[in-house]
Design brief:
Helix content is about 40%, strand content about 15%. The protein has about 170 residues and is of the alpha+beta class. A two-stranded antiparallel ribbon has the order 1-2. Strands 3-4 form a two-stranded antiparallel ribbon. The longest helix is centred in the middle third of the chain and has 24 residues. The radius of gyration is 23 Å and the shape is elongated. The two termini are about 35 Å apart.
Length: about 170
């Protein structure tokens, strides 16, 4: 964002000018990568996802369990962030389970189908399936199985939790 503003320094006291200089200096700096990762302060409340994919809370004590959670990306500022990731884990597990139950166990091809969101069109709520190899993605042995998985798990749940699209479910989709 590049906004231009005009500042009349004559209207500011010397102390206000110094504060403004500090703020402008801070605002023009690139944020460090470390500052983008939130690490709670000692005794600060944080949220995490427990072994049953439920949201739980704890206070940061620099214990090994706190650091282990942080290292795997399981430390959240609020319960809403943790709930979102919990639901994302569930959606991913449902797709994986669907693939395990429906994929052809004798499939020996190199190409699989994957669920993707086509961002190259205006309607980004369209999920598609491509033939490709994608690291970390759930693979399906046919186009039909990929399409059926979208229907079984829910198009809008996949869009929201796996692709981060803020969309409202439509009853007749």
């Amino acid at each position: 964002m590049n906004e231009q503003i005009t500042i009349h320094l004559d209207n500011l006291t010397e102390e206000e000018r110094e504060q403004l200089k500090k703020l402008l200096s801070k605002a023009s700096e690139e944020p460090s990568k470390e500052s983008r990762v939130w690490i709670p302060e000692k005794q600060e409340r944080y949220y995490y996802i427990d072994g049953f994919v439920n949201v739980a809370a704890d206070n940061w004590d620099d214990y090994e369990v706190d650091i282990d959670r942080l290292n795997v990306g399981n430390v959240f500022r609020n319960s809403e962030q943790a709930e979102f990731v919990s639901e994302k884990i569930k959606v991913k597990a449902e797709l994986e389970r669907y693939a395990l139950e429906h994929n052809d166990p004798d499939y020996s091809g190199n190409d699989y189908y994957y669920i993707i969101m086509n961002t190259g069109v205006k309607d980004t709520s369209v999920l598609e399936y491509w033939k490709a190899k994608v690291e970390g993605a759930t693979h399906f042995t046919s186009e039909k199985i990929a399409k059926d998985a979208i229907e079984a798990v829910g198009k809008y749940r996949i869009l929201k939790y796996l692709f981060g699209v803020d969309c409202e479910e439509e009853a007749n989709d």
